[in-house]
Design a protein that fits this description.
This protein is an alpha+beta fold. It has one domain (about 1-155). Helices cover about 25% and strands about 40% of the residues. The protein has 3 helices and 12 strands; from the N terminus they run αββαββββββαββββ. The strands form 3 sheets. Strands 3-4-7-8-12-11-10-9 form an 8-stranded antiparallel beta sheet. It has a two-stranded antiparallel ribbon with strand order 1-2. The chain is globular and about 40 Å long.
């Protein structure tokens, strides 16, 4: 019985310390959530045509000088999204299960434990939460030779607006 109480005490301490170590990020690479579109335009962005489809008030940009290293991987693309001229989210696209696992580890270190997850057919989702920023990590295996992943970081302030 004593070993059971020691086990549960260790589990509680682990959960407490992992949650305490989680950061509360407020934006991405020097751009705070809610920044005006002009702030990123000064960094020489390139308009990404059709990234968000037809959504009123939404514009998506990529920086021409972007460092694609993030969270231990080299991303395919990093896209900054603005809603009504305010910075609201960033999408980090990648390929490979190894990169998914590295980003999963990065998110756990940055945000704390997974707050929601789902596996459906050939797709895997993991969600993370902090007071100012939410994160969704997706990995999709569409065929044996191709796969796709995306880490979506978003401002929780603009979630309901």
């Amino acid at each position: 019985m004593k070993w059971l109480s020691v086990f549960w005490t260790a589990v509680l301490l682990l959960v407490t310390f992992s949650a305490a170590g989680a950061e509360d990020i407020n934006g991405f690479r020097g751009f705070a959530w809610g920044s005006n579109l002009e702030a990123i335009q000064e960094a020489d962005p390139k308009l990404v045509e059709g990234h968000m489809g037809v959504m009123p008030g939404v514009k998506a940009y990529q920086r021409t000088d972007e460092d694609l290293n993030f969270g231990g991987i080299v991303a395919d693309t990093i896209t900054y999204t603005f809603y009504k001229g305010r910075f609201t989210s960033v999408s980090i696209d990648f390929r490979g299960i190894d990169n998914f696992e590295k980003l999963l580890s990065y998110c756990k270190k940055t945000f704390g434990p997974v707050t929601g997850s789902m596996v459906s057919r050939l797709e895997q989702y993991a969600g993370f939460d902090s007071p100012k920023t939410g994160a969704m990590l997706l990995y999709q295996l569409s065929m044996q030779t191709t796969n796709y992943g995306r880490l979506y970081l978003y401002s929780k302030e603009f979630q309901d607006k």
